[in-house]
Structures
1.
Amino acid sequence: MVAMSHPGLPALWGLASLMLMLFIALRAVALPRATVHSTPHLALAGLPLVGPMMRHITRHPGFLFVLKLVFVALFVLIIAAGLYGTPLPARNVATVLTWNLWWAGLVVSVFFVGSAWCAVCPWNTLAGWLARHRLWRRADTHAGLNLRLPAGWRNVMPALALFIILTWLELGIGVTLDPFATALLALLMLFLATVFAAVFEGGAFCQYFCPVGRSIGFYAQLAPVELRPVEPDICARCTTLECFAGSAEVDPCPTHLVMGRLKQNTYCLSCGNCARSCPHENVAWRLRSPASEAMQDSRPHWDEAWFMIGLLALTGFHGLTMLPAWDTTIKAIARAIGDGRQMLVTFSLALGATLLLAMALYTASIRLSARLGGIRTAMGAHFNRFAFVALPLAFAYHLAHNLGHLLREGAGLGKLLANPFGIGTLPLGMAEKQARMMHMVISQNALFTLQAGLLIAGFLIAALIARRRLDLAASPNIVQLRGQLLPVLLFALAVSLFHLWLLMQPMSMRM
Amino acid sequence: MPRTAILLIAVVALVSGASGARAHHVLGRPAYALNEDSNTPPAMQVETWVGNYDFNYMVFPAFPRPGEPGRINLYVRRIDGGAAFDGKVTFTVQDDSWLNWLGLGAKEETLGVQAPDDVVFRQGFVFKNAGDYLITARFEADGEPYIIDFPLRIGARSPLGPLGAVLGLLGLTLIGVNLLQRRRAMSGQIRSSHEKS
């Protein structure tokens, strides 16, 4: 079957991006040592027009509740269309809304509003309603078992494992092309979220298991918005900690965060419970530099380091599977090893190899960095510290890749919403596919500029993170510091060049 | 023997176990196609390969209904060189249901034995009942038997099964949790009243 593909970045764009990345790498090595400093912020509540609106949204649950209702309604529509609608993926709202718009748009949304999706997530909303018997007020404390999650599960490795399984289902089994399977997957996630909400305390599923929530959480470290104390001194003097424990009307923080000590967005679900429960009205949304958190505020942990490297590998793998050459390559490998059926063994091997390769490359660069920098102890800390470098690389490529899908395949939505179940429709013909590709919201050159710009920005932030993390670690002298920096920069450059190469290739349409 | 060696052997066995023309295959993912330049109706299509042959399986119409005649077109070509297979292919059918997986389903029936018609093996069908079926194509080439399965859906899927299963499981879990929680609360009350007395 002939699949239509989108054109890749022209060679000139690739060359210009490469030159800029090399310049950034050299500049990062030559930078003088920096010291820790507080990054400037802009409180959204203090802005002239947006301020009053933000204050109202933050303090009152009504707006959030309406948004939750809208997303629950869309979720129910997706389930219904998936189960009862046409099996044609491009004509069924279940597959188009889920994979073309939500999945692709989710990463773009993090760029503007951080982890806001988690606040309106229909899985969490429905799970809360079903298991805790409350629509918006504080949940009944006797509604669930409220068990503490076993200590061994309190890390993000389950979320990474589920993300790998999700990738396998999405790209290996082809759930994206099957409305019925898409609806089943959505129901399965709802089942898991509800069981966790009924059995365990707080938002255990969101915090440690949800692959979507955790990916958003990590990417949100690079978001330009954060929910933080207005006056840190008020938090320092607070003894009641309503942000953590909740109030008579408002639920406690689902991920057990204390606002006065909050330094990173990773586990913040943007639910706003802290802002509503704080008796001093001391919690508000504010704007910040997107790179500040990953550069100096986030604290490195082993499980988070592995998650970030896994995320980097999986985003690259997504891109790889959408190259027209992927099908021929995987078919050739399948034939060589005698793997018929859906070539699932070959697919699984390729997925595993990509994950292993990314992890091996990162580990090798860290070992080399330690050797050149004269580090003989605390290798784990060295490994965890630099994993933040993977975050902007993964985020930038994920954004650039998904922008291509969103802008090139977003056409025809009006027609689809008029017939969400796709009753009586025919498969997409070549002429219609061609027409959809031609109706882009922005020009092709604008898209190329955005994609190349994102990759360059991603590499720039990665280089800054590597450099700042080293400065914070206080290496004894500048020669050792550069010795530590160089292998990490080379790793970031190699990954960025791979991403650039991916973007320069033609890319298959999702449906 | 070290654990990694056992694991390696298991992986190699898994990979090699998937090979060979004798393997029982369920073909790849279905796709739907429409060619605006021809009068051909939309088709459900699956492509895959087994042993030395590439297979292209097409079902017309794309969504066959009970009582409505339909047609299977099967293209079989050698991987090396693309020569079309010119022997005969036997088409059989059986229910593709949970009961069949457990060995309790209806028996396999033969749809027909077809010779190539201009390199295409054409097999007509009419099904009385809606459901999931498994079409099996059998032939012998290079001294080896080829048995290839592919899916066929007649009529609309019944969504009550999976929806009912998920909702039922959810309901059972929530009721179970509720009962446990009540019991815990009651035990707590009894314990505190004992402590008071």
2.
Amino acid sequence: MSMKKALLKGAVVVSVGLLGACGGHDIDGAALAAEKGCVACHGTKGKAIAPMYPNLNGQWEAYLRKQLVAYRDGTRKNAIMAIQAQNLTNEEIAALAAHYGN
Amino acid sequence: MLRKVFGIRVAASFCAMLLGGLISSTALAADAGENAAFKHHCVTCHGYDGKSGAARYPNLAGQNAPYLVSRLKYFRDAEEPGNQMNAQAVLLTDEEIDLLAEYFSKQAN
């Protein structure tokens, strides 16, 4: 393989890798909130539908992220949220927290 | 001269009335919920008006009161070992929990 070909191949590999890495940040938080059922209790914009559920609007993004992780790993105990959070990936948690939080 | 003095007196008493009104309304606002928020040091992390200064502490301003009640009882019961809030909530009575939840839920979000 010539030097030029090797460089070209390397460039293609790096480009594909970059595209893949960037793709991970493209989760639409609003769409995901609807798909995962968050909106059923927390509303589309974080205003809870009933006072027993927390409002998420105006909350710190980092706080929301931490709570979803805590529900997923069982640190924060709640029967409803444990089921909701159990299959969320870190990327999905980040997207949901960014959608609802500040 | 007399007129000028009179004018100053009127202005001074008007100012005193305004100041008096301000002080009494501030005193009224210092209700039981606010007192409890100070007494139990909630305001240290969650802010005087329920807006916390750091992302590790949740904002409480405008949060639903029933949710805050359930959350404080969760901490009081130490359902989550090691949480910083457990030691804060263990001292609270049901009445204080209601007062605090009401106070923070009424702060502007």
3.
Amino acid sequence: MPTRERAAELRVDRVACTGHGACAALLDRVRLDDWGYPIVEDAVAAAASRDVDAALALCPARALYLTGSLRLTRRS
Amino acid sequence: MRPNAKLLDDLTAAGLTGRGGAAFSTGIKVRAAFRNRADLIVNACDGEIGASKDAVVVAAHLDELIRGAELVAPHYRQRVLFAAHRGSPTLAQLADARLEVLAVPHRYVSSEASALVSLAQGGLGRPFAKRVDPVDGGRDSTGRRVHPTVVLNAETVWRVAQIAQHGPGWFRARGTHAEPGPRLATVTGYLSRPTVVETEAGVPLRELLDAAGGLPGDARSVLIGGLGGAFLTADEALGVRWSTDDLRRYGAALGPGVVTVLDPTRCPLDIVGEFLDYAAGETAGQCGPCMFGLPAVATAWRQLRRSGSDAALGELRRHLGLLPGRGACAFPTGVARFGTSALRVFAGHVEQHRAGACSYRREAAHAHA
Amino acid sequence: MTSELLWYASRATGVASIVLLTAIVVLGTLLSGRRARPATAAVRTALHRWLSLGMVVFLVVHIVTAVSEGFVKIGWLAVVVPFVSGWQPGWVGLGALAVDLMVALLVTSWLRPRLPERAWRAVHWAAYALWPLALVHGLMLGTANEPVLRGVTIACAAAGASFVAWRSLSSPADRNRRRDVLAGEWS
């Protein structure tokens, strides 16, 4: 259950993700595996990154979202 | 509807955790279910490879199971479904008892909690990404809104009824502090009397094996937790306690309580290869790392079996490392655990394959395909 | 503003809208086709969305100038209701249909986080109907005596068609694998 005390984390909706890789281009903490799907190396740092809003907006599949914070902008 | 506060207190005091594998606090789940007036799905699928304890709960403790379901979902508007695989005796027994049943397709991931929720809503039996826990609602893979639903393993629901009747003290009298209460275990495979036993955390694993006729002298390895679990050598199995604290050092946990003794007359790399080939065909095809990663693991394992080389080993480890936590459900995580532990336990046998001298070649029909 | 000026403005902004719409459709085919480098995906996504705002601006000017020009009778209702225009109801009607589809596309894209994904996807497919409607509307109205405008419109049609053809032949591995697994028993 979401709480407000926990730090925000960047999560990938693995079903929605179709491997465009825009997130890896925009975020340092995200790289791609052999098939182009994101590996989030540090979910908390990625969520706090300056470019996270751009990454959230520019995912063509809208597969990125944040948890653990007050922000509930994605489908929920 | 006034939530049953006594039940919540009892469940919390008893420390009941899910018996389906994830071992989440049942008290917390039921509290959320009450809060949302959630529907209930009782999972009697025995989804893990080799499991049959859910079938025993339905066959031998159906009245208590129904009582437990009523406690978790008491309001007439709350839908209660009993899930079991299509064509299984368990499903027939549930239907005969005039319970509302959910017939589950014969896919490994179809008995996963969110897959059951999706199926119950008229969708496919495939897990969905849980941006929101299904007990709070959310949406499934097609975007359809999910009615708040709690999924509990059949044994867990049975224990709820028992705790309500006998009290948390009775429950805590067995097991360990971290893993209290009686629990069922399926002991199966290369044994004289495969069985489902009622046991508890903390007893020697040897006791479970004895209930099934004892670990045969020629047995070499034991699998704890099926396709999502981990391997132990026979010696390790005879020396370890049946508790996650003890099993953790081998990468294993109590999980869904399945103990499988491997057939020592077959090459273990063949056995593991069969499991991994099966896993590759059981992806729900929704998450990149799983739908591409599992076939890659199966192929890498086949390569390792063929050559035993360091390169093949490295490639396999790399692919296994890309699985944990990168799917919508725990399936790829489980396969990674399974594969990694297979490498630990069968490292010696891999050496034989590297030398092109698998000891099982002397047996009939051993094909390194 | 003289009627003639409005008429020119209407046709110019109409063609500009078609050029932008074609660029948007092309970017869409690239995004849904075989995967490119990550940075490319980010840029294409941003352009695909931002150009649609630019297109809306040109489209609004196109509609306003066309209707207020007055020499031909179109009427404001005909902007959204197909085939009720006094002048050239058929070809103007195609434009109205295109406007209706476009509004649906824009609204569902704007509301995407709140909609079931399949609803967004179903409406988005309508882009493949919207684009030809706009092209035919443009070709049949106001480009007959304007070789430059006609040439640009035809070039858009050709360019867009080749990208759509490419897209229909090149599915990304992700889509193929999903489709193959979905064929199994899941219910």
